[in-house]
Design goal:
Layout (H helix, E strand, L loop, with lengths): L1 H26 L4 H15 L4 H6 L9 H21 L15 H48 L6
């Protein structure tokens, strides 16, 4: 039962919330292309569709965002198992429906405490990932400036 609980909360709390986290990073970005991506990916991220952010940022093979992408799900699983064993959150129940909006899916898995747990994981991972995002954003801005200052082949 621990595997099902961990999978359910991971899918709801991390799978869907990472979409929202990266969309929030994009919406508050200093770079115009990320702000536009944030606007475009807002509605899909509510339904757990991560492809606009995963490939638009890009997150795939991104060395700056490697640690959040690899280790946050592991940390989320560990925290969820501990929280379940201690009794902070109930064992997951119900069927997880992919594509269901984040709070509704969390409620179906663990009631109000499930929603609060999923929100807590989202907030924790938002702030833990913020330094990695800022480093990546700074590098992206530097790269964009260099690209604009470089002469074109038509000059």
């Amino acid at each position: 039962a621990a595997k099902e609980t961990t999978m359910a909360y991971r899918d709801v709390g991390l799978g869907m919330s990472d979409c929202l986290i990266y969309t929030a990073y994009c919406l508050t970005s200093k770079q115009e292309r990320f702000r536009e991506l944030g606007k475009l990916s807002l509605i899909p991220s509510v339904f757990g569709v991560s492809e606009p952010t995963k490939f638009g940022i890009p997150l795939v093979l991104n060395p700056y965002l490697f640690i959040p992408q690899v280790f946050f799900p592991l940390l989320g699983n560990i925290l969820t198992v501990l929280a379940t064993q201690i009794g902070i959150i109930p064992r997951a129940h119900g069927t997880f429906m992919w594509g269901m909006p984040f709070p509704i899916a969390a409620f179906m898995q663990g009631g109000v405490r499930g929603v609060l747990w999923a929100i807590a994981l989202t907030v924790i991972f938002f702030f833990l990932g913020l330094p990695f995002w800022k480093i990546f954003e700074k590098k992206a801005i530097e790269t964009e400036k260099v690209g604009k200052e470089a002469p074109t082949t038509r000059d």
